[in-house]
Design a protein that fits this description.
The structure holds two protein chains of two kinds. By secondary structure, chain A is mainly α. The longest helix of chain A has 19 residues. Chain A is globular, with a radius of gyration of 15 Å. Chain B is built from eight helices and no strands. The chains are: A mainly alpha, B mainly alpha. At the A-B interface, helix 2, helix 3, helix 7 and helix 8 of A face helix 2, helix 3, helix 7 and helix 8 of B.
Chain lengths: ~150, ~150
C-alpha cells in the first residue's frame, strides 16, 4: 500500500482543488496522443487525430480526458486505498481494453507536465514529488488486476 | 542517427531561445534531487541537501545545474551530431562518476517539467514532443560509452 504523509495529502488535495478537470483532462490526453503517437491506437473510433491541433481540438479526446481525470479525482479522495478505488477500472483496462500498463505511467507523466505548465512556480519540487507519488500509485493500482 | 524534422528543430531552438540557462539548470537539478532523493548520493560533497529549501538554495546545486544545462545547449546547437558531443561526457559518467544511466532519463523528464513550469502555454504539445525526443537522444548519447 502506498503511504502518503499528511503533508503530501494536503499538497495533493490543495492543488486538486484548483484544477479544472475538464480542461486539464483534455489537455493531458491530447498531449499523450501527440507526444507518444502510438497511444492513438487505443482511440481508433475518435475521428480526426491527424495533427496536434486536430487532436487538441477533438471533442472525443476532450470528453475522454475529462472522464479519465474525473477518475483521478476519486483517487485523490481515496489516497489510502488506491488499489480498491481502481479495482474495476483495472479489470476493464486489462480484460476489455487491452491497454499496456506502461501507458498509465506515460499518462501520469504527461499530467505532471500539464500541471507544471498550468501552475508554474506554484508547482514546486515538493508539490511535484507528492503528485509523482500519486500518479505512480494510480498507475500501479490500474495495473494491479492484470493477469 | 536521429532524424529531426524541420518543425522539431524549430520547436527546439525556439524554446531554447527563451530559456535562462542558469535558472533552468538550477531548478531542473533541484527537482531531480527533491523528487528522486536517491540521486543525492552522487552529490555527497555538495553540502546541505537536507530539505527542498536547502537544495534550492545550495550554490553548488545551482552551479552544477548550470553546467549540465550548458552541455544541453551544445546538443541543441548540434542536433545532427549529439552522440559525438557527449562522447567524452559519456566516458566520464561511466568510468569516473559511475552514474546509472536511468538517472539521465529522470533528469530529462525533470527538464521537461521545469520547461513547462517556466514557459506555461508556450510549452505547446508540439514543443513537448520535440523536447521529449531531444532528452531521449541526450540520455542515449550519454549512455553510449558505458561498458
Amino acid at each position: 500500500m502506498v503511504h502518503f504523509t499528511a503533508e503530501e495529502k494536503s499538497t495533493i488535495t490543495s492543488l486538486w482543488g484548483k484544477v479544472n478537470v475538464e480542461e486539464t483532462g483534455g489537455e493531458a490526453l491530447g498531449r499523450l496522443l501527440v507526444v507518444y503517437p502510438w497511444t492513438q491506437r487505443f482511440f481508433d473510433s475518435f475521428g480526426n487525430l491527424s495533427s496536434p491541433s486536430a487532436i487538441l481540438g477533438n471533442p472525443k479526446v476532450k470528453a475522454h480526458g475529462k472522464k479519465v481525470l474525473t477518475s483521478l479525482g476519486d483517487a485523490v479522495k481515496n489516497l489510502d486505498n488506491l488499489k480498491g478505488a481502481f479495482s474495476k477500472l483495472s479489470e476493464l483496462h486489462c480484460d476489455k481494453l487491452h491497454v499496456d500498463p506502461e501507458n498509465f505511467r506515460l499518462l501520469g507523466n504527461v499530467l505532471i507536465v500539464v500541471l507544471a505548465a498550468h501552475f508554474g512556480k506554484e508547482f514546486t519540487p515538493e508539490v511535484q514529488a507528492a503528485w509523482q507519488k500519486l500518479v505512480t500509485g494510480v498507475a500501479s493500482a490500474l495495473a494491479h488486476k492484470y493477469h | 542517427m536521429v532524424n529531426w524534422t524541420t518543425e522539431e528543430k524549430h520547436a527546439i531552438s525556439t524554446i531554447w531561445a527563451k530559456v535562462d540557462v542558469d535558472k533552468l539548470g538550477a531548478h531542473t537539478l533541484s527537482r531531480l534531487l527533491v523528487v528522486y532523493p536517491w540521486t543525492q548520493r552522487y552529490f555527497s560533497n555538495f553540502g546541505n541537501l537536507s530539505s527542498p529549501i536547502a537544495i534550492d538554495g545550495n550554490p553548488r546545486v545551482r552551479a552544477h545545474g548550470k553546467k549540465v544545462l550548458t552541455s544541453f545547449g551544445e546538443a541543441v546547437k548540434n542536433l545532427d551530431n549529439v552522440k559525438a558531443i557527449f562522447d567524452k561526457l559519456s566516458h566520464l559518467h561511466s568510468e569516473k562518476l559511475h552514474v546509472d544511466p536511468q538517472n539521465f532519463r529522470l533528469l530529462g523528464d525533470n527538464l521537461i517539467i521545469e520547461l513547462a513550469a517556466s514557459l506555461g502555454k508556450d510549452f505547446t504539445p508540439e514543443a513537448q514532443a520535440a523536447w521529449q525526443k531531444l532528452v531521449g537522444v541526450v540520455a542515449s548519447a550519454l549512455s553510449k560509452q558505458y561498458h
